Amino acid sequence: MAKITIHKLKEMKEKGEKISMTTAYDYPTAYFVDKAGIEIILVGDSLAMTVLGHDSTVPVTMDEMLHHIRPVVKGAPNPLIVGDMPFGSYNISREQAITNANRLMKEGGCDVIKLEGGVEVADIVKAIVDSGTPVMGHIGLTPQTISKLGGFKVQGKGVEAAEALLKDALALEAAGAWGLIIEAVPEEVGKLITQKVSIPTIGIGGGRYCDGQVLVFHDMFGLFEKFIPKFTKQYANLGQEIVKGLETFKTEVKEKKFPQEANVFSGVKEEELKRLY
Ligand code: KIV
Ligand code: NA
């Protein structure tokens, strides 16, 4: 697979070829996602919850995001790598937003950045795009402002809310965003937005008509049990496999079945060590 570019993703939208995207937060995961040929990797601020154990995405810092973006870049040379701008890294001024976007690009090494919001962040998106960094938008359910939204619930229900979301999407496209995440909205709204913008839309609970689909890796593989959103799908239960493996290991240690001869070193005869006992 050749390195994926935003140009290639736009072409995929035009041809009606669906785009696949998952998260990765470390080197081994990135390596396997690349091996599977997934087109886009998101180093999402969801890592605050899935790997750092926070209750929301709000606490994760720029330095922590960088710490996770670097190994993903090393592990996955082919997919487009999206670095997520964490809460508080782009809400003070355009300068602050550009400075932090620059850090994700220069110090992290990702290809593009993503930030949350619609009409209200359009000028920030434009400033970052004009400064030279491609931006992906994220509308609908935006976890960084979950308190404002009143919890993890479907957005864009009803015609007025749907229209507001369409306006968000159009504002982001006009600001120069190259793509859009659409999270937790009625399928009809995902379809409408996908038809009305010329940039790729990637849904997570955005319905079947988005140009692509994204899932959080830890949800896909049973590695995060705190809550399981309706829009996700589990493709394997690695969490269960890991617990089984650990239980077997524990039993084998207790019952002296591990290690075996194949797992130990030799290099001196037991009798020769006798005088040292
Ligand atoms: O951080 C993340 O994983 C995300 C996805 C839910 C799109 O933003
Ligand atoms: Na995110």
From TrEMBL:
<dbReference type="GO" id="GO:0003864">
    <property type="term" value="F:3-methyl-2-oxobutanoate hydroxymethyltransferase activity"/>
</dbReference>
<dbReference type="GO" id="GO:0008168">
    <property type="term" value="F:methyltransferase activity"/>
</dbReference>
<keyword id="KW-0808">Transferase</keyword>
<feature type="binding site">
    <location>
        <position position="45"/>
    </location>
    <ligand>
        <name>Mg(2+)</name>
    </ligand>
</feature>
<dbReference type="GO" id="GO:0000287">
    <property type="term" value="F:magnesium ion binding"/>
</dbReference>
<keyword id="KW-0460">Magnesium</keyword>
<dbReference type="GO" id="GO:0015940">
    <property type="term" value="P:pantothenate biosynthetic process"/>
</dbReference>
<comment type="similarity">
    <text>Belongs to the PanB family.</text>
</comment>
<feature type="binding site">
    <location>
        <begin position="45"/>
        <end position="46"/>
    </location>
    <ligand>
        <name>3-methyl-2-oxobutanoate</name>
    </ligand>
</feature>
<keyword id="KW-0479">Metal-binding</keyword>
<keyword id="KW-0489">Methyltransferase</keyword>
<protein>
    <recommendedName>
        <fullName>3-methyl-2-oxobutanoate hydroxymethyltransferase</fullName>
        <ecNumber>2.1.2.11</ecNumber>
    </recommendedName>
</protein>
<comment type="subunit">
    <text>Homodecamer; pentamer of dimers.</text>
</comment>
<feature type="active site" description="Proton acceptor">
    <location>
        <position position="183"/>
    </location>
</feature>
<dbReference type="Pfam" id="PF02548">
    <property type="entry name" value="Pantoate_transf"/>
</dbReference>
<feature type="binding site">
    <location>
        <position position="116"/>
    </location>
    <ligand>
        <name>Mg(2+)</name>
    </ligand>
</feature>
<keyword id="KW-0963">Cytoplasm</keyword>
<keyword id="KW-0566">Pantothenate biosynthesis</keyword>
<dbReference type="InterPro" id="IPR015813">
    <property type="entry name" value="Pyrv/PenolPyrv_kinase-like_dom"/>
</dbReference>
<feature type="binding site">
    <location>
        <position position="84"/>
    </location>
    <ligand>
        <name>3-methyl-2-oxobutanoate</name>
    </ligand>
</feature>
<comment type="pathway">
    <text>Cofactor biosynthesis; (R)-pantothenate biosynthesis; (R)-pantoate from 3-methyl-2-oxobutanoate: step 1/2.</text>
</comment>
<feature type="binding site">
    <location>
        <position position="84"/>
    </location>
    <ligand>
        <name>Mg(2+)</name>
    </ligand>
</feature>
<dbReference type="InterPro" id="IPR003700">
    <property type="entry name" value="Pantoate_hydroxy_MeTrfase"/>
</dbReference>
<feature type="binding site">
    <location>
        <position position="114"/>
    </location>
    <ligand>
        <name>3-methyl-2-oxobutanoate</name>
    </ligand>
</feature>
<comment type="function">
    <text>Catalyzes the reversible reaction in which hydroxymethyl group from 5,10-methylenetetrahydrofolate is transferred onto alpha-ketoisovalerate to form ketopantoate.</text>
</comment>
<dbReference type="InterPro" id="IPR040442">
    <property type="entry name" value="Pyrv_kinase-like_dom_sf"/>
</dbReference>
<dbReference type="GO" id="GO:0005737">
    <property type="term" value="C:cytoplasm"/>
</dbReference>
<dbReference type="GO" id="GO:0032259">
    <property type="term" value="P:methylation"/>
</dbReference>
